[in-house]
Amino acid sequence: MNLILLGPPGAGKGTQAKMLIDAYGIPQISTGDMLREAVKNQTELGMEAKKYMDSGQLVPDEVVIGLAKDRIAQPDCDKGFMLDGFPRTVPQAEALDKVLDGMDKKIDHVISIEVPNSELLGRLTGRRTCKACGQGFHVMFDPPKQEGVCDKCGGELYQRDDDNETTVGNRLKVYEDQTAPLIDYYTNKGLLRPIDGVGSIEDIQTRIKAVLG
Ligand code: AMP
Prior knowledge:
alpha/beta, 3-stranded antiparallel β-sheet, globular, Rossmann fold, single chain
């Protein structure tokens, strides 16, 4: 099963994807995670991408298309994959269609997680992530037992550089302008599966599984 998780920043795509890995045994492909790894390792690509990421802008299409294409070609994607945060523009979606055509693969469902704008700012600025295991927390809605420490592995929690209020505002605008058109793109292909993204993490997971079967 080949999936795309679509939705604004803070909709919970990454959280839901991590739960779906266990349920369906398919890998999560997050271009955001891949770019952050490149930034951490100070690769040439990472240094170039950081300029865009820090201001909440999108990294150029050709860069992320290359990353996604190489990743989908890995053998662990043969049984399926979940794209999280890619595609984010219509040209990326068109490029993905071509890549998949060439591999004799296709997208089965586009899970579109819908959350009202008024909720997103608070969700994003309160997000914390474990440096060691990647587990996500939220200072208000899902706080760790001990501030700054991961419940799961004891690792140190950090706030993403782009989860501050100014950058979050830009990211939400970029979503509206450049990514929201994908809702029409995939509706027209009969692939869009809208999911109400308000509620507990478990409730939303149940709604997604109901669609996937
Ligand atoms: P995310 O973790 O998905 O929220 O992505 C964090 C940042 O990485 C975004 O704000 C962009 O700067 C960059 N990024 C991630 N995925 C893409 C993509 N598909 N296209 C362009 N930029 C991306």
